């Protein structure tokens, strides 16, 4: 357990072994003190392994030990670092570890773990973009039960263009942490922020009849996979678009969706109430009526042209080449006009989108250039 004698173990009132149930992590590898003592006594490494094996069986009989036991500090450190980067989001969509290492530094009341990782993007390397990022995690464990039971006291991390830059950044600035300081200097856990990944946010819009709905469903993608992966930055999602072929305008749709997602998170985290989006009031005296057009022959889509509109412009559409419906343009991209319906009143305010050549300036043109499937 890391003690020089049984008497020393029993005399430890600060972190008695009876507190083992309070431990967040149980590390079976003896720390440096035991290794040093074994070396002084001329004991082999096999004896040390035997000591750790002796802890396992009785502990595993207790359900509350499940998922707590770790074979070594190094193994625990690497897993805590991976959990950290997963919570922050991957740096590259196809990131691989190029260099890694773990330093374990015991101190009187616990252990300091420093994890070093340098990541690269194979796809960018193959395309001549030699990009890499270094990440350093500094994790402090405080012992609560002998020298095997620990809790995590803090977790700081830093990122740089190289591993050396990340190390220097951590040493100079102390890195980043979820821990904030009280006015008196004491540490206080920050209140949890509202969290929703971009992938989960997109999934909520799969039923939308708009470019956002197409993006959420990966409509038109040659490789759909299992949906959208979870990243924490726009560039990683742009890299993801490089896998397979996507419809024209997907990048712009992704950028627009990302901005909307960021605004959504800001509103949620600020504590401001969510503004209820209501349908615009459509007054009978001012709204345009539906117009029926006779003797119109629809134009083949290969012979059509495009009229230019901007957000806020009034326009017309037709589903059947006989009835022209008034709409108001709300959004424009390279492929679609997004608009809200004015009539019939029961559908007023509903949002749809159509191809650029299907939205027109007059009822007659709308019927001539009616919607095609």
Give a short overview:
This protein has 373 residues and is α+β, with helices and mostly antiparallel strands. It has helices spanning 6-11, 32-41, 45-60, 73-88, 122-126, 163-173, 198-203, 211-217, 234-240, 250-270, 363-368, and strands at 25-27, 69-70, 96-107, 110-120, 132-145, 149-160, 179-181, 187-189, 291-292, 314-318, 323-332, 336-341, 351-355.
Task: Walk me through what this model shows.
- With 373 residues, the chain is of the alpha+beta class.
- It folds into 4 domains: 6-69, no CATH class; 73-189; 198-270; 291-368, SH3 type barrels (Roll).
- The protein contains 11 helices and 13 strands.
- It has helices at 6-11, 32-41, 45-60, 73-88, 122-126, 163-173, 198-203, 211-217, 234-240, 250-270, 363-368; strands at 25-27, 69-70, 96-107, 110-120, 132-145, 149-160, 179-181, 187-189, 291-292, 314-318, 323-332, 336-341, 351-355.
- The chain is elongated and about 105 Å long.
């Amino acid at each position: 357990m890391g003690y020089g004698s049984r008497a020393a173990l029993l005399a430890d009132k600060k972190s008695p072994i009876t507190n083992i149930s309070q431990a967040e992590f149980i590390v079976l590898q003896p720390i440096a003190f035991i290794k040093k003592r074994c070396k002084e006594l001329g004991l082999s490494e096999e004896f040390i392994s035997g000591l750790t094996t002796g802890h396992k069986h009785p502990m595993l009989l207790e359900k509350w030990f499940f998922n707590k036991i770790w074979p070594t500090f190094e193994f625990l450190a690497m897993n805590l670092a991976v959990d950290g980067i997963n919570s922050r989001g991957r740096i590259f969509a196809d990131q691989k570890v190029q260099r890694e290492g773990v330093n374990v530094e015991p101190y009187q009341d616990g252990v300091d773990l420093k994890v070093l990782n340098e990541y690269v993007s194979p796809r960018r390397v193959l395309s001549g973009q030699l990009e890499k990022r270094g990440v350093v995690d500094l994790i402090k464990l405080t012992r609560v039960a002998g020298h095997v039971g620990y809790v995590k006291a803090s977790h700081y991390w830093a990122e740089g263009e190289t591993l050396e830059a990340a190390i220097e950044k951590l040493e100079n600035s102390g890195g980043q942490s979820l821990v904030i300081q009280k006015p008196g200097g004491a540490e206080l856990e920050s209140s949890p922020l509202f969290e929703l990944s971009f992938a989960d946010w997109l999934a909520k819009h799969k039923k939308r009849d708009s470019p956002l709905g197409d993006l959420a469903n990966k409509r038109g993608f040659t490789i759909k996979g299992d949906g959208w992966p979870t990243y924490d930055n726009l560039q990683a999602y742009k890299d993801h678009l490089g896998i397979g072929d996507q419809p024209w305008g997907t990048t712009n749709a992704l950028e627009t969706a990302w901005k909307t997602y960021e605004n959504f998170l800001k509103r949620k985290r600020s504590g401001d109430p969510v503004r209820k989006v209501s349908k615009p009031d459509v007054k009978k005296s001012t709204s345009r009526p539906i117009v029926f057009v006779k003797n119109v022959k629809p134009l083949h889509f290969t012979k059509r042209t495009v009229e230019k509109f901007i957000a806020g412009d009034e326009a017309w559409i037709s589903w059947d080449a006989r009835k022209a419906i008034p709409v108001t343009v709300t959004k424009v991209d390279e492929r679609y006009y997004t608009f809200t319906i004015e009539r019939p009143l029961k559908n007023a305010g509903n949002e749809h989108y159509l191809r650029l050549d299907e939205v027109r300036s007059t009822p007659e043109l709308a019927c001539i250039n009616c919607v095609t499937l």
